[in-house]
Structure formats: structure tokens, C-alpha cells
Amino acid sequence: MAGKTLKGRTALVTGATQGIGEAIAQALAAAGADVVVHGIEPQAGGEAAAAALAGVHGVRAAYVRADLADPAQAAAVVARAAQALAAPDILVNNAGIQHTCPIESFPPERWDAIIAINLSAAFHTMRAAVPAMRERGWGRIVNIASVHGLVASVNKTAYLAAKHGLVGMSKGVALETATDGITVNCICPGWTETPILGPQIAARAAQFGGDREAAIRDLLKEKQPNLKLLPPSRIGEVAAFLCSDAAEGITGVSLPVDGGWTAQ
After folding, report:
1. Band of residue 1 on the pLDDT scale cut at 50, 70, 90
2. Contact 46, 17 (CB under 8 A)
3. Are 212 and 144 in a shared domain?
């Protein structure tokens, strides 16, 4: 985004040390926002990532380490962000995990972890962040869902449940906050070049003698008409737009960034 359109705002981005979360943190910082980076990396590594972000963009940045599978830690991460920098004006729920296998062999512990991190953690962070946003009369919440919050694929039971739930929850909170200067939206990425996709690409590459590019082409042709694995920066740019004043009339939306996947 051009200019420092978010200067004076503070953002909390969960799962922000790699992939889409890192790209969103970069885009928000480029737009002038101070950023609290959340992750599960050791403190020293996370602080180094935050310092690098601050150095590149000339903003303040801090690191908060928390296990979002733990409801108490998820509920506390907003307060910890406020202690580190300021109460978040912008909340981006990006942290997520994945596991793929048929329903009959899906491990219950993986179901519990995916629902906790991909869905329940967003409930806890939104619940904690909305009151201060209401008091200020301004807030932006961006939840990173997935095309799998809108349509289904096989072997992704827990991920589908979590992402469909995130879409529905976001619509409800958008309605609750519509007169408070707060917007709540989902971004629904398609195939994106991120670590979470790595195991699926590796499994498919094994069918092509280890050829990763052939695996990617085969994966994309099933679902994504543009046949392009998107860079995470594209999701970051969309998130920064949704946080801008230009998007103040957009709330309760689930925006596919999916190369045409959900148009089919």
C-alpha cells in the first residue's frame, strides 16, 4: 500500500514469524503500523524477528510468545500485546495448523489441536480485543480463513470445521460491532506458498519421483484455475487494505484470494 496509511495504529498478528503471518506483519508495518509479532519460537528468535521488522520499516515492534492451543494463553495474548506496545487497534488471527487424513483414521488429538488453534484461539483474542476497540471507536479484525472456509476437500475434516466456523463467527462479530467503527473480515486464501502446505506437496511429489514443481502443477490443476501458487505477500497486501480507511465499509465479508477456485 502506498503511504503510511496505518501510522499511529498498533497491530497484533498471530503466527507472524513465517508464511502468511509474516507477510501480513510486513505489509502492516510498511503501511506505518506498529506490530506485535506472535509466535511459538523461543524468545530470542522472536525478538530478533521483531527487531528486523522494526528496522526495515521504521516502526515499533515487539514479540509475544504464546501457545494458542492453551485457552488461557490465547485469552491473555491481547493483554500481553498491550503491555508490550499498546492495545491493538488491529487484530489479525492468522495462526493455524493442518492435518490431513480420512475421517475414520483422523486422530482425535489432532482434531482438538486444530479446533483450538484455528478457531477457538480467534474467539479468545476477539473477545479480549473488542472492548478497547469499542472504546476508541475504531478497530480492524482480519481472520485468515481459507477457501476451505467456503468449500470442502477430502481428508481435511478438522480444518474444514475450523475454517467454516471462523467464517461464521466473523460474520456474527461483524454484526455485533457494525456501529462501533470496527470491521471484521475473513481472507480466504487458495494455494499459497507457505510451510503449512509443505507436507501435502511433499506427499504428492513422491508420486512424481520427487519432482516438486510437477507436484505443485498437479495439485493446482485440481482446484485453482490460475495455476499459480501465490506468494504470501499477496495476502499481506489484501490484509493491509482491509485495515485501511478505504475499507471502512467492508465488514462481515469472506474474501477469496484463490485464483478462481471458489468461482467454479
Report:
1. very low
2. yes
3. no
